[in-house]
Amino acid sequence: MSALLRVEKLEVVYHRVVTAVQGVTLEVPRGSLVALLGTNGAGKTTTLRAISGFLGLDDARVTDGAVWFDGTRIENLPPHRVTRRGIVLVPERNKVFEGLTVDENLEAAVPRGSSAGPRDLAYTVFPALKALRRRQAGYLSGGERQMLAIGSALACSPRLLLIDELSQGLAPILVAELMERLQAIRAETGATILLVEQNAQVALEAADHGYVMESGRVVLDGTPERLRAHEDVREFYLGGSERRRSYREVKQYRRSRRWYG
User: For 65-86, what is each residue's pLDDT tens digit?
Assistant: First the structure.
């Protein structure tokens, strides 16, 4: 399976002095769901912004390495040019237009000149939204907002869907439902998904491959089975220890791009 997205030795610097991501390398094969795991501050969101082109809003820039999408380099392109290529970001915050209805949010997301088909896809994937189509987004629950945010991204007909913190602030039953919907999106549209998550247990149940980030670097990667079997992943991300110690209290992860056992 060929890679739709390939990130090579990526380095991102904020305010021209602070290095937030250093040497990140990862691949996302066509049609796959890949999880990018790590705690707050690991560099996951910065990596997504580097891919989607939204770094400039935070006075940040890719200073080294490359982002390849379908064979073309896209690092440091503005967001609208990245989106035109088929990469759509569902951000961690400010996901919807609160003053607009559900229907208006979806209509606003459809590129100019497109048919209603992409908007209707959101209602197909998230039937609960159809009953709420006249409701203002500001009155939606957290789970409903997340559905609307993903539905709005689908209205852009993405080839690569970037989702930042799907489970944040949501009850486990809602997270499980959203993960099922992501699988339905893959089946319905053939879209490729890169999912940033702190909840490793949930992400590894859905993903084909996973990467673990710490302090701006990828420190482990592998299939869900291999990552679940790794002692450090069990202890720090899957609740395998009685006392959750900090990362600094234990040995460093091996600084290799792939874990061989």
Answer: 999 999 999 999 999 999 999 9
- Find residue 242's DSSP bridge partners: none
On whether the CB atoms of residues 56 and 41 are closer than 8 A, the answer is: no
- CA torsion sign for 76, 38, 183, 89 is negative
Helix (H), strand (E), coil (C) string for 206-225: HCCEEEEEECCEEEEEECHH
Please name the helix (run of DSSP H) or strand (run of DSSP E) that holds residue 66, with its range, or none: strand 60-69
Q: Are 31 and 23 in contact (CB under 8 A)?
A: no
Provide the CB-side half-sphere exposure for 237 (13 A, CA).
Answer: 27
188, amino acid identity? E
Q: What residue type is 260 in one-letter code?
A: Y
The predicted-structure confidence for 216-227, as pLDDT tens digits, reads as follows 999 999 999 999
**d(C-alpha 242, C-alpha 7), whole Å:** 36
Whether this model's pTM surpasses 0.85: yes
Alpha-helical runs (H) found in 34-141? 44-52, 79-84, 102-109, 117-125, 127-130
Residue 108: CB atoms within 10 Å: 13
Task: Give Cα 36 to chain centroid, integer Å.
Answer: 7
The CA distance from 233 to 210, in Å, is 11
Rounded distance between C-alpha atoms, residue 186 and residue 161, angstroms: 10
